[in-house]
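Morning, I've got a small favour to ask if you have a moment. The fold is given in discrete form, as structure tokens running alongside the sequence. I'd be grateful if you could look everything over and explain what you see. No rush at all, and the record is pasted right below.
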Amino acid sequence: MKPKFWFALAGVAAVLALIIGLVTVFSTGTGPRGYVANTYTRAANLDLSGDSDNRAYTSPKAPSVVAFEISQKWRPQSQYTDSSGIYLRYSSDAVVIKPYQRGSVIHVMDARHAYNRYHSHVGGVWGWSSPRGESFRGRGPGAGK
């Protein structure tokens, strides 16, 4: 066979691999929001009112198991657990996992909305000192001085 055939065949294989890779990346979503959407069951009836960015999902697993699964896939910047639930903070999103029936309800929302809603739980833990989170610089000791 001629070398042109092999080059053409290699080109077609490379294009197919690129297409498959792009479809995989964009269909699974990136970040914790995409992971939760693709892994757990959507429960629109449990969306929190007053936050159009909030999405609720359910799982038959315990909150600690769900938090472990999400944290293994996407490492949170901060994590807090109390008797009300598990709070995972990422750069722009937050994942709040609470007990629900015999499993869990998972709320994915903007980190600011989560901080405002759950300030009484995460206020001293997520690094923000003001109630709206404006004072957090997040670049380490002495940054911004």
Notes: The CA atoms of residues 28 and 34 lie 6 Å apart.
